[in-house]
Design goal:
This protein is mainly α. The protein is built from eleven helices and no strands. It has one domain. Helix 1 runs parallel beside helix 8, helix 2 packs parallel to helix 8 and helix 8 packs antiparallel against helix 10.
């Protein structure tokens, strides 16, 4: 007489199981956006701040580097005659290039993230064929349905309570994944706001490593989203593969949850992976 209750509980368990990976769809949708698209107001604010507040200071620093470079140049014993003209032109060329980079930093940063977006699009096309989006496969779902048919009403209630706990924890995992993605954009905006200063140091032989490390950091942030996409799709592939071969409903749900937790841990690591790849 409890068939209707068992069927209702089974359907809710199955729906919870099927939705385990779906929350990552919104995470991916946010991760692949460019900084200007993610929050255009924030992007415009940091670029205006950089232009009106930071850039004048960067020009002053660049002028100071010009004087320092010229002073060091004329102290060298080998700089005489035509050689002095050659080295002065080299210094001026460096200053002009640094000034050009400072004034076009928004274009440069956008170009870096456009390249990463192109790579992400290619990665999506490759993974969708094997992961079939962020959904648990029909084979795995059918396997869970067969496993649930072996439980009585009391056992089904236990599985249902377990699935509710899994649903809550999985929701937390999705929120954490979204936070990781959002923190990446905040870091991009903060670095963009002061971009003119590190670009100014590129004209200095002594302090140019600051500008070079800044560019590396921006490239690392662009690579970061590629690692995020790979981790998200690997999560779905592994979650599907692990649950297909299992015949116990509780094991299926907890294995899927386990991969959700591993996914969040891996997402936390993606930032350090990209920095290590760029040597910073």
């Amino acid at each position: 007489m409890f068939d209707w209750l068992e069927d209702g509980l089974a359907n809710m368990v199955i729906e919870t199981y099927k939705e385990i990976g779906s929350g990552m769809t919104s995470v991916l949708a946010e991760a692949v956006k460019s900084p200007s698209v993610f929050n255009n107001t924030a992007w415009q604010s940091v670029t205006v701040f950089n232009k009106n507040v930071v850039l004048p200071i960067a020009w002053s620093i660049l002028s100071l580097f010009l004087l320092m470079e010229l002073a060091q140049l004329f102290k060298r014993a080998d700089v005489r005659g035509l050689d002095s003209i050659y080295w002065v032109c080299i210094v001026i060329l460096k200053i002009m290039l640094a000034k050009l980079l400072m004034e076009n930093m928004t274009t440069i940063i956008n170009a870096i993230f456009d390249i990463s977006s192109s790579m992400v699009t290619s990665a999506q096309n490759q993974f969708i064929g094997s992961a079939k989006g962020f959904t648990i496969s029909k084979e795995a779902t059918d396997n869970l349905t067969n496993a649930l048919s072996k439980y009585d009403t009391l056992g089904m209630l236990g599985i249902f309570v377990t699935s509710l706990l899994v649903k809550i924890v999985n929701a937390v995992c999705t929120v954490l994944a979204r936070v990781i993605v959002d923190l990446r954009f905040i870091e991009i905006y903060v670095f963009t706001a002061i971009a003119a200063l590190p670009f100014a140091t590129l004209a200095s032989n002594e302090y140019s490593t600051i500008g070079k490390n800044f560019i590396k950091r921006m490239i690392a942030l662009a690579i970061h989203v590629i690692f995020v996409v790979i981790v998200l799709y690997m999560y779905v592939i592994l979650a599907n593969g692990a649950t297909i071969s299992t015949t116990d409903a509780t094991d299926m749900i907890f294995q899927a949850l386990g991969y959700s937790l591993l996914c969040v841990i891996a997402l936390f690591q993606t930032g350090s992976w990209s920095k290590q790849l760029m040597g910073i």
